[in-house]
Amino acid sequence: MKNLKLKSARARLDMSQEQLAEAVGVTRQTIGMIEAGKFNPSLQLCIALCKVLGKTLNDIFWEEES
Amino acid sequence: MKNLKLKSARARLDMSQEQLAEAVGVTRQTIGMIEAGKFNPSLQLCIALCKVLGKTLNDIFWEEES
DNA sequence: ACAATATGCAAAATATAATTTACGTATAGA
DNA sequence: TCTATACGTAAATTATATTTTGCATATTGT
């Protein structure tokens, strides 16, 4: 499923996918795929994304149990 | 670096590496390598581990800034 | 002593994350 | 209209996570 939390956190900082990608050292496509929910990133990439976005792992990647 | 939070959370449930591995669908070696800090697991594996251990991503995989 | 469990380690093979390159569309500005 | 930016998507390649198999040691129970 899509990761809208990542998308909105990026939007809140007014960053493009490319800017975020460069900030964490991956390519634009990687960011796009993660936001689209097409594959599962590595833990280190998740952590790097959170630090750039000023969020924690739970903020961006944890789904609360219903 | 070692992931001692994972190791202690597993110990608290009195689970062996092999039991935890089976519970999340990976091999014993994968659990051992993660605890030893030898490589970075995928996000989905981290989430599966947290759910089995009754913890969140932040509990096990997030390092607070100093 | 013997057997069973738990763990660490490592080489080779496999699965998949991530890159590179490229093409398409939509929008905003000159 | 023309140009530039942003985003979605996809095939082929590369890097690396994960598996498989095996061997070693320590510990616990019989």
Automatic annotation (TrEMBL), chains A, B:
Pfam families the UniProt entry points to: HTH_3
Domain of life of the source: Bacteria
Entries under InterPro entries matching the protein: Cro/C1-type_HTH (IPR001387), Lambda_DNA-bd_dom_sf (IPR010982)
Keyword vocabulary terms for this entry: DNA-binding
Gene3D superfamilies: lambda repressor-like DNA-binding domains (1.10.260.40)
PANTHER family: TRACRIPTIONAL REGULATORY PROTEIN-RELATED-RELATED (PTHR46558), TRANSCRIPTIONAL REGULATOR (PTHR46558:SF3)
Name of the protein this chain belongs to: DNA-binding transcriptional repressor PuuR
